[in-house]
């Protein structure tokens, strides 16, 4: 799976960096940065939960392959 | 304002009781809590949204607006004069702006609210917690935790974030406490007077910081905003006042209620003492979920027909988000009325959802984490003490006046 973040949608809530710090970070402006777009299985589970339920602006996108 | 009203006729509003802070009227919502249409005092139609999944989907949907609108669901009967004032002030408040302006203004404040920026506050907040606990210990058991820690700590942290000089902090904290209802005995006149004094204070503070920029959260925001034409001076004054008092009541209550919940669950408290690093993040989220009480301030109006689960919310109809119920949704959380620090409640709605999710949430998390951690380790024998004044949660913003603890 691939992780992508839409910085135009991001509102800088920072919950991605809080809950999956090996996959996501916040830049100095507060917007999402993807640190690792091909996470391990355990990280992928967190990324899915973030994308589906936690990220309030739906800025995290996950695709197959 | 406190009378329960018939479902289907108007929006239910009632005082909240303890220990079950959810409105009893909610029991009348249909099984499974699908969307329920109600009529607002103004006569316009709105929908109560109580399922976790519905709340997330609708609050993330940009076809709903938070800006003033003729049929925006306002839950109290309001004279036109008050509505006009709200509409005028709301042009300057982050919480009542839609994108794209909301996006621009939020980004002016955002750099000082990131996780890394808030982490830099950790040593200072810990120092303050330690000072308050020193005083509490010196005072001797029992003490009122609200006055000893839950109330003064957030006030001090907010004043430091804002760069409010020591000599002026009393003015801020006294008036902020009156305005947000930390003591519900204040009258509307007293609240309006407090608001006026705060507005005068912030008008001066904004001018001072425009003339002599300071490197603090408020100084940085005013510098960034002053380089644009988003706000006039009055607008900037309103906005800075909102930034500072928005989360004040919220965090005071969560420190008190979180402590109370842990003391009510000794086995969980023992587990938390034994593995604080492992369990505290979950504990903080569970406290936020369990006490996700401020329902009726989240409202939107539909700018288009929106279909959800076979129901069409028509253009011009409102939604009222009952996030206290959403965070107790059995379809989302097993055994939702049980306080359980072992559950994964990271997706709670306590800070809202969608683009307006609380800007200061990491500051709130930090204060809650450090207060709970320090309290349970500093006082291994901490216990609740019977008080002759029962805990009472009153209407919309529930103040906790007193929590007697001993050790």
Automatic annotation (TrEMBL), chain A:
Keywords: 3Fe-4S, Electron transport, Iron, Iron-sulfur, Metal-binding, Transport. Coiled coil: none annotated. GO terms for molecular function: 3 iron, 4 sulfur cluster binding; electron transfer activity; iron ion binding. Its cofactor is [3Fe-4S] cluster. PROSITE patterns: 4FE4S_FER_2 (PS51379). InterPro entries: 3Fe4S_ferredoxin (IPR001080), 4Fe4S_Fe-S-bd (IPR017896), Fe-S_cluster_ET (IPR051269). Residues 1-29 form the 4Fe-4S ferredoxin-type domain. Ferredoxins are iron-sulfur proteins that transfer electrons in a wide variety of metabolic reactions. This is Ferredoxin.
Automatic annotation (TrEMBL), chain B:
One of its GO terms (molecular function) is oxidoreductase activity, acting on paired donors, with incorporation or reduction of molecular oxygen. CDD domains: CYP105-like (cd11030). Gene3D superfamilies: Cytochrome P450. The keyword Lipid biosynthesis does not apply. SUPFAM superfamilies: Cytochrome P450. Keywords: Heme, Iron, Metal-binding, Monooxygenase, Oxidoreductase. Belongs to the cytochrome P450 family. This is Cytochrome P450. It comes from Streptomyces taklimakanensis.
